[in-house]
Batch of 3 targets.
Target 1
Amino acid sequence: MKKIAAILTILLITGSTACNKDWTNEQYQQYVSFKAPLDGDGVTPIYIRYKPDGLVNYALPVIVSGTTNNKKDLQVHIRIDPDTLQAFNDANFQNRTDLYYKQLLEQYYTIPDTIVSIKKNVNTDTATIGFTLKNIDLVDKWILPLTIEPSNEYTPNPRRNYSKALLRIVPFNDYSGEYSATALKVYLKGEENGAAIVQSTIETYVVDENTIFFYAGTVDENKADRRDYKIYAVFDTTKREVTLNSDNPNINFKVNQTINYSVEDIPDELLPYLVHRYVTINNIDYNYTDYTSVANASIDYTVRGSLIMERKINTQIPDEDQAIQW
């Protein structure tokens, strides 16, 4: 019995030693990848504070995968990849070219160094991308498509969504983002006491520091002629008022009363580092004409109610784009 116990002890020790040695070796291939997680649309939104006269840098992580540290100094080359963007658009939208993502124009970005140096025993570094987004028109959906170029020194991750990045550019200011629209009613003009159309949310987009735009009524970014229904909202920080206007006379846009807004910060009841910031737009009341949905006919609408946006802000994170829980 003692001999059997001794043999088992030796086997266990030997097996344990072998397992420990196994874990000192690389268990997988060391690939080079972007850290660019996809959203539900299959792209990677990156949030950039809008600064009209300044450059904003975004650090895109480049990582070496595997179970051990990077074995040597690497010079990782990245470049713009329009072919992947074209293939993505073709696969997702077919002949709906009005829905295609567009490649970000060169005037809006710079990539100072297309080579990312990752040192031996270090598994990550960042590619710095500079954005200057003054006068960008967010009616179009802008993408910066990037890829990791193959090299004799390293192997890009064979999975497409790791070696390539489709960065959707989302500039933000204090008022842009997704608003809850359940309290905003869309009526046929003259039927304001009748049934209303209600959307769950409305997306708003940056124009400048104190201006956003959204689409009139139930129009959204999936409508081919959405550009014709842009409504600008200018926030007066002194009066706490919002001025709405349109640059398309064909929609007969008219505001019927003064619109106010408020901003309120409420600490989270359970997480002391978390702040809930609510932007509320009250007393919305405007008319517009839909002149494109029905051939040879126009439909007049009245829109009334309020919108509210919540931002969850982690006060422990210094970088604003990272502190906001998008």
Note: Residues 149 and 218 are 43 Å apart (CA to CA).
Target 2
Amino acid sequence: MNNIFSVVVHKEKKYYVAECPEVGTVSQGKTIEEAIENLKEATELYLEEFPLKKTSKPFVSFFEVTSHGKASKAIRA
């Protein structure tokens, strides 16, 4: 049975990092295509060992943050 999963890709220095939010698998590659192909392989291997019973599609949205050059105060927890 084939499943369709989401992928989120971002660049870190020399490599693209691909993540599957539904499963939690992560991989990387020199190109976006390579990162996604490596993620597909990692996810297939993961699911062989840990099959999913049920998945739901993640909700994707965006938000905006105003960035400032320098923080005025340190935040302590």
Note: Helices lie at 32-49.
Target 3
Amino acid sequence: MDRMRAIHISSHDGPAALEVVDIPEPDAGEGQVVIDVHASGVTFPEVLQTRGRYQMSPPLPFVPGSEIAGVVRSAPEGSGLSAGDRVCAFPGLGGFAEVVATDPSQVFPLPDSLSFAQGASVPMNVLTVHFALAHRGRLQAGETVLVHGAGGGIGIAATQFATAMGARVIAVASTEEKRDLAQQAGASEAIAPEGFKDAVKELTGGKGVDVVVDPVGGDRFTDSIRALGQEGRILVIGFTGGEIPTVKVNRLLLGNKSAVGVGWGEYWMSNPGYLQKQWAEVQPLLAAGKLDPLVGMEFPLEQATDALELMDGRGAVGKIVLTHGR
């Protein structure tokens, strides 16, 4: 059996415990697509998995990595895929490796305009944001969106997608470099986290925003609700800030506001065909350049620890990608 390089999580001791291993290539199960991986996206769930704190934590050891881009090696008949196709995919696990086998429903044709590094930036961030804003947030053209963590992968994708939908974006990011990146992604204004509630009030003429995209959580959650206008929605995507916030529901009552959970993974796993439906809606935006994944940092596969430690320390500017030297 052919072998490949991969990354193992073999203990729950954090990113520093990741191991580079040489293991057999995955068996192509019946009906699966086999992909030679050129790039793997790095996401916050992988950081959590290194500590055993994510809802999807397989028995040790295992290969993490939820999103990839590469070239199809083989595909089952009727899948619409052929050997040699450029694709990105969302295998859920196993992406930090040179070869991945996954279900065709989780594989998507990659527009020629996107590099493999950009392709590996798409599945988790863009599809999560599409689900958050278009499906759960019911975003409409002309509304105003406040995006937290706007210098990271989810934040950039949210900024670009909201802008493509005709919304105004106010980006919140912790450094000037990240704020500049958010404005490159289409944000009308970019502000610091400190005092963002008052800044939003000033920027909206006291009206507040229609939607808040919050992948951060933590102590800014209450002020995010205060920053909402009438019938505003705060989209709860994650907790990269570490703390899961609580909310006094009277804050929702006042102003007819809503706190909306965004559990993209849970939704698509219980709704067959939903991923491909999403792709049909976002692919034209990708092909037209309206969604243009901003890869901030690339690391070789062997430096996965460095990549995850950077994300863990919230030092990421743009999307972090592992490359495979193909």
Note: The chain has a mean pLDDT of 93.
